[in-house]
Design a protein that fits this description.
2 domains; plasmid; SAM-dependent_MTases_sf
């Protein structure tokens, strides 16, 4: 789990998790309940509006269940949304989705 790895870093003072599915929150929240650095917000990352003035050192987008070329548009949208308030961003599966797109384009070219 990415959250567990992030919290191993001594310089991490706060982590905001935006999670759409309450069932997922129910599964993981108890594991981090005693860590005061963790804030879990039940919201859709596509619709969530961070508070004015908030900035993030890193944003990790992980809303996809599989690798599909269709995910790339959502990745671009999320990364664009947080571009001005986040120093670094990544999206789970981006490289795999981009590879699938290249393979698809190569098939079309044949």
């Amino acid at each position: 789990m990415v959250l567990h790895a992030i919290l191993q870093k001594d310089d991490v003072t706060h982590v905001t998790v935006i999670e759409k599915e309450q069932d997922v929150i129910n599964l993981v929240a108890a594991s981090f309940a005693t860590d005061l650095r963790v804030e879990i917000i039940n919201a859709d990352a596509m619709e969530y509006c961070p508070p004015a003035g908030v900035t993030y050192n890193a944003c990790w987008h992980d809303i996809w269940t599989d690798f599909a070329t269709a995910n790339l548009a959502q990745m671009d949208k999320l990364e664009s949304k947080y571009r001005d308030i986040c120093d670094w961003q990544g999206s789970w599966g981006r490289e795999e989705c981009e590879q699938k797109l290249i393979e698809f384009q190569n098939l079309e070219a044949d």
